[in-house]
Amino acid sequence: MEKLAGELRAAYDNAPKGGKLAAVQLFAIRNAAALAEIRSSDMNALAVSAGIGMLYGGEMRLAVHIAHLVQLDFIQGGARTDRSPRKGAKSNNTTNLSGLVSELQALFDNTPEGERTAALCAFGIRHAEKLGSGNLSRLIAESGVHNSVYFTIRKGRKLADHVLILVK
Length: 168
Prior knowledge:
By secondary structure, this protein is mainly alpha-helical.
């Protein structure tokens, strides 16, 4: 546990400003096999032991839960270079979201409660390029799902710069 705490702290410390959460999630994806054996309370304790705060324990649990759905896509420095980067790109608010609206509604309605958070995060990864800031808010409003899913989908959107989705 001490070794994991040290690696977690290093990942957190080396993350750029605004990238701490993604760094913690990527750490958890990389170490999913070891972390899957840890109880929830121990994952919180790992985050505290690393000096980054207990709330990151929940973020690590989410990342472990989606680890089987993604493949890490690190190119030197951790940025994706195989397609146009999303960072700094302007959102196209005229994008037709009707297909995404029905997909999000179906995902929300048909995914079991315990799997919904991971599915929403994967949705954000899969559709990151279409979900600029304005489009994500609009998508949630048009789909009629609870506003709280915004943050989970946004986490997936941010992770999309570092992972490739393996399943649809």
